[in-house]
Write a structure and sequence with these properties.
The complex is a heterodimer of chains A (about 130) and B (about 525). Chain A is α+β, with helices and mostly antiparallel strands. Chain A has helices at about 30-35, 85, 90-95, 120-125, and strands at about 10, 15-20, 25-30, 40-45, 50, 55-60, 65-70, 75-80, 100-105. In chain A, strands 1-2-3-9-8-5 form a six-stranded antiparallel beta sheet. In chain A, strands 4-6-7 form a three-stranded antiparallel beta sheet, with no helix packed on it. Chain B is an alpha/beta fold. Helix content of chain B is about 35%, strand content about 10%. Chain B is built from 18 helices and twelve strands. Chain B has helices spanning about 15-20, 35-40, 90-100, 125-130, 135, 150-165, 180-195, 210-220, 235-245, 265-275, 295-300, 370-405, 425-430, 435-445, 470-490, 495, 510-515, 525-530, and strands at about 170, 200-205, 225, 250-255, 280-285, 305, 325-330, 340-345, 350, 420-425, 450, 460-465. In chain B, strand 5 (about 280-285), helix 11 and strand 6 form a beta-alpha-beta unit. The chains are: A alpha+beta (about 130), B alpha/beta (about 525).
Chain lengths: ~130, ~525
């Protein structure tokens, strides 16, 4: 289903990662952006910061609440979507494309095994 | 548009008048009565009302030699714009501007304020009488201790009352609000553990706790471990057992929790935490469900805060300031903020500065004294039986609302609720309506909206806390309004999705306001844009 592209992997905290070898682009899912409502601010780390799997790397603020963003994998942040500073609505309008958040160079690629496939993630949110 | 029944008529004359008073549907000015003009009229900023040359005050002729201000004040401290763009108005214009604004207020003095988790109860006027007694009201904050014995005695009496209510050994009245009390409490836990030789690293917080709890724990240098609640919304004792190690300082628990449910296994949880060397902090924001019926100290809680501006009827929100006393066991008493109050005899109370283990002072002077007067007035006016009756009525009112609205709104965590009830918008979502739309529509019916989208464990939450202040008649009006909105969601969802319709301003663009906030009027804005 288009809401959860097959070429991505997912976390139970509603982040996605698009992997190209040991480089991963990270954002939040359609389900997450819909639950949050209109996103008004995204707080992201600086390039060069080290992030750990399942630990917060930033936060996203919507009209309803502030929520932490959890990294799907460990590694170094090598790119940050600076467009979100002026256009946080991209997280709502284009969660998998223009609304991406950070790019991570993986330090422990085996962590990827713990992530969910699109089908597994869809089953997970159906249970909620 | 759908007619708006009953509740709004309390403020205004008739629903027909209401529609006429709406500026969008106003036919011609002569048909409008003066009273309805004021209700519907929007108000400029006072800056925009300025008419240069207007004066509110005339100074008498100067009878001392004139000295240029430039000779008295260093040049770099002088402003050079001659106060350009400061508003210039007459005294009646200023008075009318602010008086008109004051009529826009909505508070417990104008109607029901069902904001869940906030306990927006009525503030009895006897509290205001007591706080305005000149001996209290005119106390100077730096008055010598010997001249304020009465104030100290009042504070001690309040502390003692709160000890009795919480079942704990000692109280500090210093913290200025609930989250400040949390911070103070967690600092005491940290101090006690440090004295034992290990402050530990983690604090356990259930996902149905108050949102400020994790922040307080982090401010004290702890990492937070979130405990996922059971399906019924209550603390999972097995998860607690697993998470509670010798690296954990303790548990921060809100009881009743943010779903309005009593944590039935609180005593077992406290026992488990104590057995492994930890402390239990209880967020007392929901104490309006417990006062006079049960005591956190008896459950095994080590430290908690109270919100005088919730449970004890002092003004809340913009009407503050707040007061968030912390209560502790004898074990934590040495760590209380400095100074404490010590009773010497029946009449005499002194400040005790000999507190070597204290975490220090947490508030200038001794907290917000005016709130302490009001809270003690409330406690004394009701007495033990009255406080218990207030609690029972608050719980009854919440259950009355739950009973009458559960056919129309889903209750995600079903169980006997205490002082507040959480619904969600799941049934209404089928018609494209979300909880925020329901809140906006409720304004048209003359009510302040309940708490929205909190707690986070209940997506689409609508959290209602009526408190004991509301009569059955008022509760029935609220229920009737909520039911009418539920019908509108099915039959005419657009009316709900575009609400409010009867307010001065229609639906505001909250997203744009959050993304591009304009926080104040700026003088010379146009000039700057053109010149600089």
């Amino acid at each position: 289903m288009a809401n959860y592209p097959d070429d991505l992997q997912y976390t139970k905290d509603h982040e996605w990662i698009r992997l190209t070898e040991d480089i991963g682009r990270v954002g939040i899912t359609h389900y997450a952006q819909e639950s949050l409502g209109d996103v008004v601010y995204v707080d992201l780390p600086k390039v060069g910061v080290t992030v750990k799997a399942n630990e917060p790397f930033g936060s996203v603020e919507s009209v309803k609440a502030v929520s932490e963003l959890f990294s799907p994998v460990s590694g170094e942040v090598i790119e940050v979507n600076t467009k979100l500073a002026d256009a946080p609505e991209l997280v709502n309008t284009s969660p998998y494309d223009e609304g991406w958040m950070i790019v991570i160079k993986l330090s422990n690629p085996s962590e990827v095994d713990a992530l969910l496939s699109a089908a597994e993630y869809e089953d997970f949110i159906k249970e909620k | 548009m759908t007619p708006v029944p009953t509740r709004a008529a309390h403020f205004r004359s008739t629903p027909e008048d209401l529609f006429q008073s709406n500026p969008m549907t106003l036919p011609t000015a002569p048909r409008v009565k003066k009273a309805s003009i004021h209700i519907s009229q929007n108000e400029n900023l006072i800056f925009e009302n300025s008419r240069p040359g207007s004066r509110a005050y005339h100074l008498p002729p100067n009878d001392v030699p004139e000295i240029s201000v430039a000779n008295l004040v260093p040049t770099h401290l002088l402003r050079d714009d001659d106060l350009r763009d400061m508003p210039e108005l007459t005294e009646p214009e200023v008075v009318r501007h602010y008086t008109r604004l004051s009529t826009w207020n909505y508070g417990t003095d104008t109607g029901m304020f069902p904001l869940g988790s906030c306990t927006m109860k009525y503030n009895p006027k006897i509290n205001e009488w007591a706080a305005r007694l000149p001996g209290f009201a005119r106390t100077h904050p730096l008055a010598p201790e010997a001249t304020v014995r009465g104030n100290l005695l009042l504070m001690k009496q309040l502390e003692e009352s709160l000890c009795e209510i919480t079942g704990l050994a000692a109280v500090s009245l210093q913290p200025a609000a609930g989250a400040h009390g949390e911070l103070t409490g967690m600092m005491m836990i940290r101090a006690a553990l440090t004295a034992r030789g290990d402050a530990r690293q983690y604090v356990l917080i259930p996902d149905a706790a108050h949102g400020t709890n994790p922040a307080s724990a982090v401010m004290c240098g702890y990492k937070v471990i979130t405990l996922i609640s059971k399906k019924n919304g209550l603390l999972d004792l097995a998860a607690l057992d697993k998470a509670m190690t010798d690296k954990v300082a303790g548990l921060m628990i809100t009881n009743p929790n943010t779903l309005g449910l009593f944590e039935e296994e609180i005593a077992k949880a406290c026992e488990l935490i104590h057995a492994r060397g930890g402390f239990v902090y209880m967020d007392g924001a929901n104490m309006n469900a417990l006062v006079g019926v049960t005591r956190p100290g008896d459950m095994g809680v080590d430290v908690m805060h109270l919100n005088l501006h919730k449970t004890f009827s002092t003004p809340h929100g913009g009407g503050g300031p707040g007061c968030g006393p912390v209560a502790v066991t004898g074990e934590l008493e040495p760590y209380l903020p400095y100074p404490t109050l010590r009773r010497v005899d029946a009449e005499t109370v002194v400040f005790d500065y000999d507190r070597p283990c204290s975490i220090g002072r947490v508030k200038a002077y001794y907290g917000n004294f005016g709130m302490m007067i009001r809270a003690l007035a409330y406690i004394r006016a009701l007495g033990a039986e009255g406080l218990r009756a207030a609690t029972e009525t608050a719980v009854l009112n919440a259950n009355y609302i739950k009973h009458h609205l559960q056919a129309d709104y889903e209750v995600p965590f079903d169980g006997p609720v205490l002082h507040e009830v959480v619904f969600n918008d799941r049934r209404q979502q089928a018609f494209g309506v979300r909880n925020g739309d329901i809140a906006k529509r409720l304004i048209d019916y003359g009510f302040h909206p309940p708490t929205m989208s909190f707690p986070l464990v209940a997506p689409g939450a609508i959290m209602v806390e009526p408190t004991e202040s509301e009569s059955r008649a008022e509760l029935d009006l609220f229920i009737e309004a909520m039911r009418a909105i539920a019908r509108e969601c099915e039959e005419t969802p657009e009316v709900v999705k575009t609400a409010p319709h009867q307010t001065r301003l229609r639906r505001l663009d909250e997203t744009a306001a959050a993304r591009h906030p304009v926080l104040r009027w700026r003088p010379c804005q146009a000039a700057k844009a053109a010149g600089a």
